[in-house]
Amino acid sequence: MSGTVLRTVPSTIASTSAGGEASGQPQVILAVVLGLLFALGTFLVLRKDVVRVVWGVTIISQAANVYLVTMGGLRGSVPILSHGGAHGAVTDPLVQALVLTAIVIGFGTTAFALVLTYRVYEEHGTIDLSEVNER
Amino acid sequence: MQPSQGVLLAVLALPFLAAAVTPLLYRVVGERVAYFAAAVAAGAFALIASQFGTHGTVSLQWIPALDVSLALYVDGLSLLLGLIVSGVGVLIFTYSGAYMHDEPGKAKYYTTLLVFMGAMLGVAFAADLLALFVFWELTSVSSFILIGHYQDQDDSQYAARKAMFITVAGGLFMLVGFLLLYTVSGDVLGEATFRLVGTEGALIENAGAMQEGLRSAGLFVPVVVLIGIGAAAKSAQVPLHIWLPNAMEAPTPVSAFLHSATMVKAGVYLVGRFRPLLGTPEWELFFATLGLLTMTVAAILAVAADDIKELLAYSTASHLGLIIAGFGLQSVYGAETGAFHILNHALFKAALFLVAGIVAHEAGTRLLSELGGLWRALPITAAVAAIAALGMAGLPPFNGFYSKELLFEATYHAAEHAGGLWWLLPAVAVFGSIFTFLYSIRFLSLFAGEKPEAIEHVHSPPMAMLAPPVLLATLAGIVGLGGVSATAGIHLGPLEHFIERVVEAVGASEPHFGYHLPTSLTPAAGMSAITIVVGAVTYPFYGRIAAGVQRLIAIDPIRPNFYYDGLVSWLDRTTIVSGTVHTGRLRTYATWFFLAVAGLAIAGYSGAGVVFPAISSLAAEPAMVIVLAVAVVAALAVTRAPSHIAGVLTLSILGFMVAIFYILASAPDLALTQLVIETLVLVLFLLILDHLPEFYGEVDRIRALRDGAVSAVVGITVFLTVLVSTAATPGKPIAQYFIERAGVPAEHGSTLLDFGGGGNIVNVILVDFRAFDTMGEISVIAMAALSVITLIAMRERGETQ
Amino acid sequence: MSADPRPTDSDTTIIAQTSTRVVVPIILLVAIALLLQGHNLPGGGFIAGVLTVTGFALIYIIYGLRYVEQGLLHRTVVPRSLPAGDDESQAGPPISKEFGEIFTTGLALAAGSGLVAMAFDLPFLSQGVLFVEGLPLYGHVEFASALAFDLGVYLVVVGGLLTILAVVGAE
Predict the structure, then answer these.
(1) What does pTM read for this prediction?
(2) Disulfide: which of B295, B624, C18, C156 matches B778 by Cβ 3.0-4.6 Å?
């Protein structure tokens, strides 16, 4: 019952996103955005401050997730089927499954990186990477 | 008769399973685990012995989808090696029980030794090149661990690294040879195969065609040389022999087991195994030269050695050279030499190593110059040493005599056939044998004469250390006496028959093997006589010869070790790598990593001739553009954030924008997850930032420009990649399979197994189609949590030093 | 940001505390709903797991770690006024042990659910659905074996992330 109601909701969302993209058409906007995000993330990774390095890694992994979803195609409805019913064009569920776990694991690794940062500070008394190396 | 599949699998599985339980068992029974290991080896020995007389292949489906199977092959050669490995294994484990009494790291020692034994049995029975290679490298790795057993000694570590470096590098050469064989087999046999032996489509069964195929591809000599390098590295052939003397840093039972009786036999085994496939004049030239050269050079070096284990190490290399030379020679005598000497050498050399272990253990030194007159204190050991050392010297009627006689016969035969320079072969064989005779007698002399003052009271060794060498020497003695009785017409039937099977396996058709003392003056008998007479005459000048050799090997440029050490220390010192890449700074690593990835990607595109799509329209809708624009602005703000708190908050804006992007991209699951995770990330960041100092690292202009350039390169690469990859339309997306099979079909019974049976395709993929991947992913989360606990909650533990 | 839990969390307002009391049960309920419906509708073990963790995180922040341990789990806690590291014997906050058990259970459940399939001679981790018709009140019910696996995922996510939060928060 409630399922059918919910099922219609995403399809309206999908219809709004379905415009614009023709098959074989490069995603120019996303290419620009992802290029910028990767560049900014790279810049942060190259900083001396460990916290900024963690930020950089976070941004890069976010951008990678967005890239994966983009690769699956932005056109199509929500990948949810009704029982026995025919299904139209849905967005690629495989990349979504990949990204779903990537998000959660990303949190795990971010947490690990942060805790490492904290321990670095405890052990070395600094979060300056150029100084950590010397001690 | 076909071998039994179950028995063979049990033979392979038994040592590995035993190795898995050894650390636990050690906690329970302590060092008595040695007898458990000995029992395992005895079990393997019994199982292999039960296959005596069988011949053929058994295979077990391993990964049916990829047509990978584990194939095992049994013939005389694999049985011989298998029996030596497990048989000597029994004795070594028994001996270790007493020898390792006061040594550290016993659990690790027995585990590794068992793993080694399993790997070695794998080498013996593998019917396929890949399995052979894997087991082969496994023996190298276990040898590395065993040589480096004394972890706090620099010599031990140096020796372990050296052995690993040389044998594994040699193994890689061998792998290239295997891959070439595989490629050529595709052209010759219609279907490329790694199967070496035993089935219709196997390489050895089509040796003639393979040789032709290799020759027409111009790969014959390269393959011989590549496989030869692998065998030479493992079997310590000149100039790759240098690791073997250092390997004597290992505990003596390891030296006896790995570095004399078994592991070094792997190279020899390889040569024997490939002999039917590649045996040609080129093969003969390469291996006969390599073998005889090693036999002579190593024998000369052994004469110069003062440490008894070093002497035995060089002697091992020398005898392995003898076997390789035998397998290299094309006549049936050559095959007989190799086959018979594998057995003889295992018997006398393992016995001698164990004797050396007893001497070192009881007399407290291993230096020849300090030892002497031990026969009073160690009478049984002295008897064992006499039988074994005289066999090593090649004196009739001890066992080594017969196989050396066969080598003389084989070299003489080859020289007679080819003439010319080939006459060098018998000459070199005799020359090398003289040195063998000399050092054998020198080894024996440490039991003779009067005991020097410096050596204090020598205890007699415990039974567990004495019984194994006694057994080995008895067997060696029986083999020797077999030759005497055969002269009188009574042959040692089973042994001769067994060696016959081995000879058959290394490529002689219809062999007829028998051995006895020479009854007439054959050329070989004459060569033996020369060896013994010259040896006996020169023995009084042993000291001078040894000193001469020592002076000679003090000249750096003729020492292979000089080049090895030079190379290694150059690699250590050189700043080409450490100054530019390996600086210990994250920044340097990251820069190189990013630039390398970007460079490879761009090079790949230009190499593959990727055409970048023309940009005709921006192809985007307003909502998405706005969301993405906010995300970019947020990222920019993160980069320029004045404080950590501000940065984290703007980072969250980016995260929430990404969540909205997921909604717009019809990915509700992702959007939900992203929203919640973003909240948690924020909480976590704030919790941690509370403890961190206000350090933001000033950015100077030059550095910012440099990093900006790197970032720009990365950004442009990503931009191009996204353009290219989104413009492409794959013909048949993988996802279609999941979409079709995820849902519940219109008609279904009360249970549903073929389909995913769920409406949410993403979830069905996660929990059903790719559930195994999800298993791995949740393990990662558990691992992250454990790491955090370890880093924080357990930080006070384990940092005692 | 109550990084060090104090007996009375005076730094959070009454409004925050009250709304937390209202919101957390809703969050947990939604999380469970997402877990159960995940096979057919948006949701699943991962999402439900992280949502549950957010609920707990909210309690941590508003009431402090101490409240969770004493008030919710009825356990007496060694005062953590000592600087970390003084007491050699203590191995982290006691609560993380419980969370550790949660993700261990989850992993075991996920792997175990795969072994069940092997008992029926199907490949590891094969899933099936059982349809039951004509139940009173519910009528038509589907039992997906995948739910067991999803529950394992849920427990791992909850246990793992809560461990991280608790360990970090206890500092």
Answers:
(1) 0.69
(2) C156
